[in-house]
């Protein structure tokens, strides 16, 4: 069975990932763009799942920052799709760090 990006699916879709495009919070007078794709879903005991992600923000103001984080569990958004909330801080570089928070792009599955 092939699942397309716009398909509605009941349950959890094994192996799916999420992407996001966001900006960090302001620190030391600047922001960084954060382009992210998560690792595949990790099941949780309650029947939902989370995603692990790691990477770095786009080079800005002469430096970059790295991050490692887990998402919230799945948040159903209707039509057989879900999103995840993320909230984390980057590494400290150049004497500061940045806060990143938001919601990733919807993916198939309502759990």
UniProtKB/TrEMBL annotation:
Q: What is this protein called?
A: YmaF family protein
A Pfam family of the record is YmaF
Q: What species is given as this protein's source?
A: Tumebacillus algifaecis
Q: What InterPro entries does this protein's entry cite?
A: YmaF (IPR024307)
């Amino acid at each position: 069975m092939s699942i397309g990006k716009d398909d509605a699916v009941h349950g959890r879709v094994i192996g799916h990932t999420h992407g996001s495009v966001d900006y960090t919070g302001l620190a030391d007078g600047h922001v960084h763009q954060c382009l992210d794709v998560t690792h595949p879903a990790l099941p949780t005991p309650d029947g939902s799942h989370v995603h692990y992600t790691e990477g770095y923000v786009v080079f800005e103001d002469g430096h970059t920052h790295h991050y490692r984080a887990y998402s919230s569990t799945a948040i159903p958004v209707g039509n057989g799709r879900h999103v995840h909330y993320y909230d984390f801080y980057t590494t400290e570089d150049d004497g500061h760090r940045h806060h990143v928070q938001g919601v990733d792009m919807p993916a198939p599955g309502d759990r």
